[in-house]
Design goal:
The complex is a heterodimer of chains A (426) and B (169). Chain A is α/β, with parallel strands linked by helices. In chain A, 31% of the residues lie in helices and 18% in strands. Chain A has 13 helices and 18 strands. In chain A, helix 10 runs parallel beside helix 13. With 169 residues, chain B is α/β, with parallel strands linked by helices. Chain B has helices at residues 20-23, 34-38, 49-52, 73-80, 93-101, 146-154, 157-164, and strands at 6-13, 58-61, 85-88, 105-108, 121-125, 130-133, 138-140. A seven-stranded mixed β-sheet of chain B has the order 4-3-2-1-5-6-7, covered by helices on one side. In chain B, strand 5 (121-125) and strand 6 form a beta hairpin. The chains are: A alpha/beta (426), B alpha/beta (169). Chain A binds chain B through residues 37-38, 41, 45, 49-52, 68, 73, 75-76, 79, 119-121, 135-140, 142-143, 146, 185-186, 189-190, 219, 221, 276, 365-367, 384, 386-389, 393, and chain B through 17, 19, 21-22, 25-27, 29-30, 32, 43-45, 63-64, 67-73, 75, 90-94, 97-98, 101-102, 156-158, 161-162, 167, 169.
Chain lengths: 426, 169
Amino acid sequence: MGMTITEKILARAAGEQNVRPGQIVNARIDWLMTNDATTHVSVDLFKHKLKHPRVFAPNNTVFILDHNVPSETVNTTRVQNIMRGFAGEHGCILYDGEGVCHQLMVEHHVNPGQLVIAADSHTPTMGAVGAFGAGVGSTDFTAAMVTGSIWLKVPPTLRFELKGRLRPGVYARDLILTIIGDIGSDGAIYKTMEFGGPALSALDIDDRMVLCNLAAEAGAKNGIIAPDEIVSRFLAGSGRAVSAQDFLQSDHDCTYEKVYHYDLDKIEPTAARPHFVHNRAEVSVLEKENIRIDQGFIGSCNNGRIEELRVAAAILKGKKIKPEVRLIISPASRQVQLAAMREGLTDIFLQAGAMVVNPNCSVCWGACQGVLGPGEILISTGTRNFKGRAGSPDSFVYLASAATVAASCLEGKIADPRKYDGKETK
Amino acid sequence: MKKNEVFSGRVILLPDDVDTDIIIPTQYMTLSAIKEMCRYAFSPLRPELAANICRGDILVAGKNFGCGSSREQAPEIIRELGIACVIAESFARIFYRNALTNGLLVIEAAGLAEHVKEGESLTVDMKENLLITTGGKRLGFAQIPSRLMEMIEAGGLVEYYKELNGVKP
């Protein structure tokens, strides 16, 4: 019997020939990552409870400040300084305000076939380059910093077979919101979501990160896509050489718990209504409901990459957002922000009336930028629309693509982006 | 919490998809102590709840309890509030793992919510792996593996490691 990509990565990391779903393995970790949302908890456990002298592999342990950046309170700075101090003391890699954690891991570190454990729920993002990424809490993370390994239960795999091509105005974001609407926010609990099929050849790394990242919102342990030429070109572009044997593929005779089929030609612009990611609604339906918005957000670990910024800029070019709407754009990393400036996208955003802020979790995290007041409505490319996620417990968050957010900000209400496709400049 | 204990507690009933932003909203996460965060627990859903929780109460929830962020403060707060255990139709995986590593007993049992009311007493028999309602309904649950139970008994992974691996302070 063959194995899936995920099973192969876990088998390799555990030093086993074969692994099967349900089996518990002790796996060697290639990369550990933690951010300023919870690192102080891990540092406290490590230093004061375990009193452990050293980090197992500091050169493969990455500390990223991205959640409350730049700091908004004295207390946040105090907590962040605990993290900065520990990284310096133990020689861990530190990124301070460089971008959103998962984006930086893919941009700079993670290669196909690797195993990544991070103290953040959206770690499945790593599957975009054919790596296994799973989120854990602070105690598991601390134990992994001590031992360099972690126990993991091998997950069963759900296969999402994708064919066809997304039509103009429809993006990977719409596809994954559609899938989560179908399977529910618990549809993949404890499981792997493996995306594959002929449609992948038209989905680049940015799109793949969108799919794998939001697997977390279906409860998945990891999301993964078989690495191919697109991954190989991406890695070469960022100066990383990878051996062909790390490009693991699922065997033809591997076992999938279930196979889902999606025809991308049939996907519509899709949103999630408050307060659950699985509350799917077609944008064309929402448009008819005349839902006024107070704020738009483009950014987060799910979005805010150069492809999405290009899409938003194409819609906003030469136009003005409604004066009563606030549009906040946070590029996913400094690299993305620089590219957006070079391509003139930042000019377009600023001229359209948007606020372009530094790369960070921003509005998606609901703590340091663009926090919502009672009764306010946000349309966002963020990861979650839970009650209170972006501020007041009495506010409302709709999730949608960058195109839908841009179109909605132009109209002051949730709007279908397809009417702005092409050369229309009215 | 002991392997073979039989205990009873007052039921607090929660819906499906109780996420970690509900268990502890983002804006309170930089408070310096778990004790300070406790008063805001579940506040977006039920602002009155945290103040009314008594030691030994049992949370009975629907499916996908603890979905969302990896914040470990979520199970820590529930334990700090004195909740004896959380019983849900299903748990989000990171929450489930975090609960065990923090010594909070979590039990997966389908169909309990329809047989209990808020405020009623519920009995948990860890020896027989049984839940017994006031109305006399008996529901089984899967045995928690002994190694995980030892970790819960030790008070979580850190304490367990200290005992097991000799990583002594």
